Amino acid sequence: MTTVLETDEHKALRAAVAALGTRYGREYLTKVIAAGAHPDELWSEAAKLGYLGVNLPKEYGGGGGGIAELSIVLEELGAAGCPLLMMVVSPAICGTVIARFGTADQKQGWLPALADGTRTMAFGITEPDAGSNSHRITTTARRDGTDWILTGRKVFISGVDIADATLIVGRAEDARTGKLKPCLFIVPRDAPGFERRQIDMELHGAEKQFELTLDDVRLPAEALVGDEDAGLLQLFAGLNPERVMTAAFAIGMGRYALSRAITYARERTVWRDPIGAHQAIAHPLAQAHIDLELARLMMQKAAFLYDSGDDAGAGEAANMAKYAAGEACVKAVDQSVHTLGGNGLTGEFGLASLITASRVARIAPVSREMILNYVSHQTLGLPKSY
Description:
This protein has helices at residues 8-34, 40-48, 67-79, 86-101, 104-116, 232-267, 279-307, 311-340, 353-357, 360-363, 368-379, and strands at residues 121-124, 140-144, 147-158, 165-173, 180-188, 194-198, 209-219, 224-225. It is α+β, with helices and mostly antiparallel strands. Strands 1, 2, 3, 4, 5, 6, 7 and 8 form an eight-stranded mixed beta sheet that branches.
């Protein structure tokens, strides 16, 4: 059996990215968020070092690696306290889909720029009334001569304000069956009829969330990515990397919180010994570490399967990895805050904000309940209730 444990190259990449993350750290990201800005300096430096495009083809300026390498980058930046959420969207989802299914012009026009960080792309699938059910997407694409006309709404779309374009999931009529099938379109940010409204979030991050309105947005034929008849194949080529990268995001965040709690537990003395000497403090932290390590193993398996071309196997593993990482992250953050007591709620230690942030991996891009449904039906063969 082929091992999924990391190679020496992976370990070197992990160490190099960790060094970059340490130079920026949580304080940098906190200042960026407070200023309502974006982590442009970190994004640019990560791009120059080849980290943003590590998964993209070499012939287009990428590193020639895969999601395994890209997930290492995001995890280590997260463990340093400065994750780049747009990595989940721009190189992982959009870059992967274009690399696999894009035309020669789309690849040449987008992949080098995504790799060097000079352009970013957002991803729009979620809708107000569809939730996690991609079959209920109501954004439609209809032909008008050689053009396409897109109409619909999207919600909770990250980073649209800084993205040069958004990869929109719409549904077009199948000429053979008359049924609607998912199709992917590159929509430039300045396209007439393409409007955005920022959503007021309790979650404070550098990447803002938006509701999108597409009011008869006219696109040329070359805006379509891939074969309009490929449907779900192309869609899940992007969604499986999204789940792996969400797992990396969660594992990194959990590791960051845990490291702060471990340092505190070693140094904080209330009676005679440091509080970390007491099993009521030590054991929950040890459990959190174990859960994060187990989640990483499943994430590595999912990335390995995806990079090997096993889309079916990667789908199951990616969902499991995202579920495990989300649960492990929430528990690690909760235990870390609790370990610090009142200090865990102060701005000085900066852990309290992670309580809200850690919930993201349980909710997005698909809820843990829908993952349990997937495993119930696809893996265990149990009947559906919907």
